[in-house]
Amino acid sequence: MAKLPKVPVVIVGMGWVGGIIAAELTKAGVQVVGLERGKSRSTEDYFMDHDELRYARRFELMQDLSKETITFRNTESMRALPMRSYGSFLLGDGLGGAGSHWNGQTHRFLPYDFEIYSQTVDRYGKGKIPAGMQLQDWGITYDEIEPYYDKFEQMAGISGESEANPMLGKRSHPFPTPPMKKTPILQRFEEASKKLGYHPYMIPSANLSENYKNPDGVSRAACQYCGFCERFGCEYGAKADPVVTVIPTAMATGKLEVRTFSNVTEILHDGKKATGVVYINTVTGEEVTQPADVVILGSFVLNNVRLLLSSKLGTPYDRKTGRGTIGRNYAYQVNSGRAVGFYDDEEFSTFMGAGALGMEFDDFNGDNFDHSDLKFLHGAGIRISQNGLRPIENNPAPKGTPTWGKEWKKTTLKYANRVLTVATQGASLPWKHHYLDLDPTYKDIYGKPLLRITFDFEDQDRELTKFLADKAGEVMKEMGPSHVEVKDKLDPYNIVPYQSTHNTGGVIMGADPETSAVNSYLQMWEAENVFVVGASAFPHNSGYNPTDTVGALAYRAAEGIQKYLKQGGMLV
């Protein structure tokens, strides 16, 4: 095993988290090593490469599941089995991580989210929280995190309507660029929503509406509305991506060394502090030790948790006692409720679009409406998106259509550009029996145990889905289709089909070391020189996409790491 000289900071994972923290530390003069399990990437890799089969169906930008995957079960009475092909969510791989293949929808969480336990109890009483639901405050308020939201949005050039959504918290500055184009599809949704008394707004977008230079001096071009965002890299650099924003900023300082093909397998520690990491060079197979003063985990949610558990750093969560924090409060996303409109006499340009081109309203998100007589907490955004419907993945047909043969072909061709969907994206709240741990049976190619997910949808989620799907159906009917199909039933969770890559929790933040793994700077209570950054810190998942909050927390963590390098100790 090779052992390298000690460095001040080592970062595991070079996606949004790693890129942001590297940029902030290197601008402050700190030497940083960034370790990325996958290969390097740039915009040139995607030039004239709108290959749906390669990227959307064969998952070019994703982790190789034959080498490392997860196992899944609904309950403890079931045997967990490995995810052998992609379905429910997508695990990014390579420089930029999920920040390269995301759609770009960039929502802030609600003030309610950060104080969800306190505000729920204040308004409804403790009896409103079901037995077994582990709601807890985040240890930070919206007002405290707002400056970091602003910093992420200014860096990424987020396009949006600053005053259009009355349901959100205050903003210190307007969005840096105007909203994206309001297409005829979006206009129809807007008119229908307003007629019903709701408050639609353009979804904040990391797909640039115009050319933009950010505060770090990085210039990027405007979106071309090609429709190849999710699961694809952007050939124009119009989609905010660590590879075209924060990583170049860090590299320009001369203080960042990025090592690709470097898969971290262990955090070295003495029980109180980390001393470095061990990684495997995936090209040569060589095992390397990298000592460091500070270790930052900035990988995907599931990989952050797995690395801590396999390194025996932090106390594993015990479902039976409720004690321990690593693996606690795993949450997902509840987004099955939707209304589909079929138009026999109209066509739309649904093949065009962008990853974050859409409209939404939040009248039924968070606690923006009265839950007194409802059998669920929180809610969902109701939205329509024009992402660009590609032909392999999208063959819509009404219920009752044969699933193959001449009639299927005829019907799907008819409706190829005649179907619109009003969708819901709901919050996923934490339960005592939803958690992450190491699988006792299955291992990866290096002999390390796989991460095991124990999760299923609850009555809370089914009630939320039915309520919100009905609201989506009302909007869809106002949009004038020939007929509407409403999906308001939530099936038991399964690893197939694709649903959302919005996994959260497992290394959650809070003010109490008994119920949280990290503080508000995402510094580990049990190892003060380790910072675990990303959606793994979320104590629950909101009704929004997580990236804006991940970015905000990364900027706050970078500030905390700089303080720690100067003074040491637990930060307050």
Automatic annotation (TrEMBL):
EC number: 1.1.99.3
Flavoprotein recorded as keyword: yes
The protein, known as: Gluconate 2-dehydrogenase alpha chain
MF GO annotations: gluconate 2-dehydrogenase (acceptor) activity
SUPFAM superfamilies per record: FAD-linked reductases, C-terminal domain, FAD/NAD(P)-binding domain
Location of the Glucose-methanol-choline oxidoreductase C-terminal domain: 440-554
Keywords annotated in UniProt: FAD, Flavoprotein, Oxidoreductase
Family per record: Belongs to the GMC oxidoreductase family.
Source taxon at top rank: Bacteria
Pfam families for this protein: GMC_oxred_C
Membrane-spanning parts: none
Class of the enzyme per the UniProt entry, highest EC level: oxidoreductase
